Amino acid sequence: MSNRVEKLSGTKVINTNFIDSFFIKYLQNNIPLAVELIASSEIIDQDILYGAVTTGNLWQFGKLDKIEKTIYQDLNLFKIPDDLLDLGKILLGILA
After folding, report:
1. Could you tell me which of 24, 44, 61, 96 has the fewest CB atoms within 10 Å of its CB?
2. Contact 86, 78 (CB under 8 A)
């Protein structure tokens, strides 16, 4: 399978081929986020899913689009307490 990775406005876009369900052969440095999103897509009936990985002090976000069969990974890392306002806005935007 071939993947196409592009950097667009601070977002990594991964387009990949799919077999029966979501499958990613290669996802540079954030495999846990991709795996979490793919697993969630199997049990949650929504076209768009959001996810995050965190160490507690460091946060990174991603989005899975079932229609486009694409995972978007935000390349920004948000730190607590420095980026707390931005982090709050992102979380509220996901919940809205």
Report:
1. 96
2. yes
